[in-house]
Here is the input.
Amino acid sequence: MKHARVLYHMVRADFLERVRRYSFLLTLAFAAYLAWGSATGLIVLRLGEYRGIFNSAWLGSMMTLVSTLFVSLVGFYIVKNAILRDEQTRVGRILASTPMSRVFYTLAKALSNFAVLGLMVGVLASAALLMQFIRAEDTHYRLGTLLAPFLWVALPAMAIVAAVAVLFETLPVLRGGVGNVAFFFVWVTSLAVSDQKGVDDFAGFFVIARSMQEALKKVYPAYDNSFSLNIGDSAQITKRFVWTGVDWTSAIVLHRLLWVLVALAIAVVASLFFQRFDPARTWSFKRVKKSQAAAGANGDALAAVASRESRPSPGHLTPLGKTSNEARFSQLVVSELRLMLKGQRWWWYVVALGLLIASAVSPTTAARQGVLTAAWIWPVLVWSQMGARESRFATQALIFSSARTLNRQLPAVWAAGVLVAILTGGGYALRLLVNGDWHGLLAWFAGALFIPGLALALGVMSGTSKPFEAIYTVWWYLGPLNHAPGFDFAGSTAGASRPAFYLAFAAALIVVAYVGRRARLAYA
Amino acid sequence: MKLVIDKVSKRYRGGNWALKGFSLELNPGVLGLLGPNGAGKTTLMSILATITRATEGTVTWNGTDVASDPDGLRAVLGFLPQDFGVYPNLNAVEFLEYLAAVKGLDSATSRRRIDELLNLVNLTDVRKRPLGGYSGGMKQRVGIAQALLNDPQLLIVDEPTAGLDPEERVRFRNLLSDLAGERIVILSTHIVSDVEATATDIELIAQGTLVAHASPEDLLRQVEGKVWEWVLPSAELNAAKQKYLISNTARRSDGVHARVLADTSPGGAQPVTPNLEDAYLFCLSHHRAGAAA
Here is the structure.
């Protein structure tokens, strides 16, 4: 009983702290947007040219799939800051000094994540009910039928996402940008495996899809088993059928509950990696190793400085006078570039160099579709610092009290980002230049301007690196990797790239970054 | 060189006034800014450092309104905020080189300056260590160094000695005194002894308003003949605290030695020489009594 009370208060405090932040309104706005998109036909669940009549079963299941597809991806990035927040607010150190166990802590964080995601699911469930009322294709309201897929499919899926977010936060290698990028690929892979192998995936697609497919096949034997939840292709739906919902057998329910157990297990596993905010463990492993090695070789120089003999009189400080020259803009760009690349390990440079050389020497098609694509995902964590670094490291007061920070420092950050794009993707550009492929070169150039523009705008507006890491990874996956029309910013699709659009987009993003930074300064 | 603060007010969201009609004129020297928690010191510093905009009133630097030309002030400003971060993967030299570039210093000047500053703040030996491994006091010294990078004419330091060991505190006080001659230094702190050691002028601030602006000598003069050392049994201390303003106590073999602020001697107490802490508490208690009345 005492444990339950402790757990309740830990979850409650964390949940209240989240929902009382302005950013939570954005979270609810996102859920509301998904609901609106589903109601207006922007988001469409279709089986070939068919869709179900908007009855309680269809709407409940459709909104459930919207929840598990979109909320499971975006929700991860929303909730993956529960432990980080305790670290940043220093509340974690207080908690660490209490008898709280590590398992309790990670379970509480997973439950709090689940509560936030559950609230988003709740918005969509309410929207499903409202949608049935508004569309009025079937006026028999069956609350149990409508809510059952939320209960058995959406909530277990959210439990998995909630627990995985905690696990990622406790694993040193996944808690930062690497984890943000990696989750997208884990998410895509898990859905793809379910699609191809027909297994019960965590998102519950298979359970609902199979039921719908079987029902439709009985009515229209010619139906080809296609099943999709898409954005914006409602025009392809020409026929409707009646679907009465999944038959929630005990086997299906147990299977879904198994995912809840898996989520609990993940939260427990996360506790094994949770270090209770030990400052000696939370800083970079690389640095700890380095400083230990140095201390071993030379004695502890830090301690030596602290205990050195008294030298209370300050040293000499030469007045700068009026002769000192003002730094060139290029000097600031180099400083920004150095800051961006600082902390990268040697192998990061080796891979970057390898991709640069490979893009220069590979055949044009391979360079365009393979090497350039890889070369421009490799520095994603370098770009993602742009615009967000001052907020992340609390250096705003130092930077923003300097002269012309808006007109010098901000453009310098962007220019450094462009240099990273040029340095990593330059081999391919050289090849295009040699081949005289001017259109390809223009598309490449647009990409080199667009990526840092996107990073800077998202970094400045959000103050964190997460939105860029998530959005850019998805964009890169859709465009350069899978050649989705309109998404290819890198010119990797021969003849289908849109350099003019991305040049304009880059310019617009720079304006957004400028306006966003200007709004954060007391005086522009 | 003149900084004029004219009827400056700051209201935060929710209608809470952090500063109300604050006016002050500053010339070269060290201004010690003293006040209790929540007095508005950090808000005032943020406004002067162009981080926050005043809701009402103006700040002028050498006759120019800071709102119309913030960069005019920023170019000659050194600012050490109370809370600031560092980039943990950079070492002290790289971090200062970066900030020097942001402040617009050329490479050669910044290199020379950084060498001097690191020596000044006693970090030369660890200059190549990543900042992520620095202690709180060492980071604070990096903060002091960055504030002096551009040889500022206006130096604003908010709780600069927080986290410093006694030796480094003495070094910093001496540094401030040395720097004060040809620039305006604003020092905000809770540590009265820091102000006592360096300030040429003192400003007492409470509840967003100016309580007193005077030289240390003038402030001390206000409590001349009002500070007493009273030896009393331990059991009577609580009763004495209810009746008198006590600035300090020390337990000795003959009882508790209480430092009492009062117009007349309480029960045979002996007069003692007032210090700045006595003056600070005296002014604040008078202000509170006035506000309550």
